[in-house]
Design a protein that fits this description.
Layout lengths: L23 E6 L4 E8 L4 E4 L6 E5 L2 E9 L1 H22 L8
Antiparallel strand pairs: 1-2, 2-5, 3-4
C-alpha cells in the first residue's frame, strides 16, 4: 500500500446485517449535506378526493422513513459512480435492464 493511500476496514454490526426493507428513497439536500431517506410503505395507496366534487384526483402512499443517511456533497459523486458500477454489474449478471420505472 502506498504511503498516501487510505483504505477502510468496515464492519457491519450483527443486528444490521439483514438490512432494512425500503420501498423507495427520497433525496434532498441542505447547504452542507445530501440526505437520503429510505421509506417503507405503511399502507396501500389511499385515494385523494376533491372535497367539492368527490372525484378521485390521485393517490397517496403512506410511508415511514426507516433509515436516513446524510453524506457530504463531495461524497455524492462517489456514490453516483458506485451506484452506476453496481447497476452495470447487476445488468451483466442478470441479463436484465432496468429503466428505473419498476
Amino acid at each position: 500500500m502506498a504511503s498516501n493511500e487510505v483504505k477502510f476496514k468496515i464492519d457491519v454490526p450483527t443486528d444490521m446485517e439483514a438490512g432494512v426493507p425500503a420501498d423507495f428513497a427520497s433525496l434532498w439536500h441542505t447547504s452542507t449535506s445530501f440526505v437520503i431517506d429510505f421509506v417503507a410503505a405503511t399502507k396501500p395507496p389511499q385515494p385523494v378526493t376533491d372535497p367539492s366534487t368527490g372525484a378521485v384526483t390521485g393517490r397517496v402512499v403512506p410511508g415511514r422513513v426507516v433509515s436516513r443517511v446524510r453524506i457530504p456533497p463531495q461524497q455524492v459523486f462517489e456514490l453516483a459512480r458506485a451506484l452506476t458500477q453496481q447497476l452495470d454489474a447487476w445488468e451483466r449478471e442478470t441479463g436484465k435492464k432496468s429503466d428505473g420505472n419498476d
